[in-house]
Amino acid sequence: MRIAMVAGEASGDLLAAHLIEALRPHFPDAEFVGIGGPRMQAAGFKAWWPFETLAVMGYVDAIKRLPELLRIRSGLLKRLKENPPDIFIGVDAPDFNLGIERRLRGAGIKTVHYVSPSIWAWRGRRVHKIGRAASHVLCLFPFEPELYTRHGYAASFVGHPLADVFPLESRKVQTRELLALNGEDTPVVAIMPGSREGEVRRLAPICVETIKLLAGQRPDVRFLVPLITRVTRDIFEEAMYRGQATNLKVRLQFGHAHEAMEAADAVVVASGTASLEAALLKCPMVIIYKMGGLSFRFAKFLSYLPWVGLPNILARESIVPELLQDAAKPESIATELLKWLDDKEARAKVLSRFDQIHLSLRQGNAEKAAGIVCGLLGRA
After folding, report:
1. Crossing angle of the two packed helices 344-361 and 273-280, in degrees rounded to 10
2. pLDDT tens figures, 91-114
3. In this predicted model, what pLDDT tens digit does every residue of 222-258 receive, in sequence order?
4. SS3 call for 174
5. What residue ranges define each of the domains in the chain, with the CATH number in brackets?
6. Nearest CA to 106 among 81, 127, 76?
7. In the chain, at which residue ranges do the beta strands (DSSP E only) sit?
8. How many CA atoms lie within 13 A of 377 on its CB side?
């Protein structure tokens, strides 16, 4: 048995590694080959290229590296066609993987695309491109398969891996002890202005003003600000200096975003996967985002949904506030944070909805995905 896989970033590396581990009992002698990262290699994967070779940062970097990426894709296809695998699994990275899948499927090789692109949010016509490329699409969200099956394409909901990893019960007390935040009654707010430099530059001044406003009304509040890189930390520190907020109870952290949300009573979070993580960690949130005016109008024109935050999309209603563009004002953000800190009824209601979302996504992701792959390979 030979199973080829391609993962193009850290999240895909983790997904693929769990899938390899779930497939191994069914195919103990299987060879796993292709493009992957250290987690996949630790699970017994043979990486012809490391997954970092597919990493690009923005359009400019993508254009610069296009010749290299085309050479890698050509080399990969050549190897897979010369010695065809029993199945090919493209893990996320749709810009790279869908072309590979289409060509391999045309050559008679079964193909799987693991993680549906966000066709439910925008560019819905891509459903045909994806459906023609993949023999089967593995979806992380329960509403996604119907988008494919209505057009005659095979797709299945396999649950979200974070829902399996994160505990159903809050670990706030233990995490506060770990972070040396003494006292269960001390209100804690996490501030997460994003992971990209551009996001942090746009949102840091707004977040700093929000901290100042909230600290003025509630001097007992402690603030945690997890930042991923030295650059983003420098950007936030500069915003604090310019905003004259260096004397406030703000702790800047390198990473540890999950711990910050677990310890917090509320979080300000840039729209994205972090909003789902906050929901699974049972932390009420205020979702904010800000981009260039033209980009925002274009994104709004292409959007199919009235929400951008995954908790609201999954709940199919506004269970957490979304303050986007001009609505992302410090006064409005502080008001919403105070509601989560002080309104026990509202807090209990949203935590109940978070529990429902968590249970709906907790499906035994890797085992369920492995079961579908086994079916495609003729193994019950």
Report:
1. 110
2. 988 989 999 999 999 999 999 999
3. 999 999 889 999 999 999 999 888 888 899 998 899 9
4. helix
5. 2-159+363-376 (3.40.50.2000), 172-361 (3.40.50.2000)
6. 81
7. 2-7, 31-36, 45-50, 87-91, 110-114, 136-139, 155-157, 188-192, 222-227, 250-254, 266-270, 285-289, 322-324
8. 21
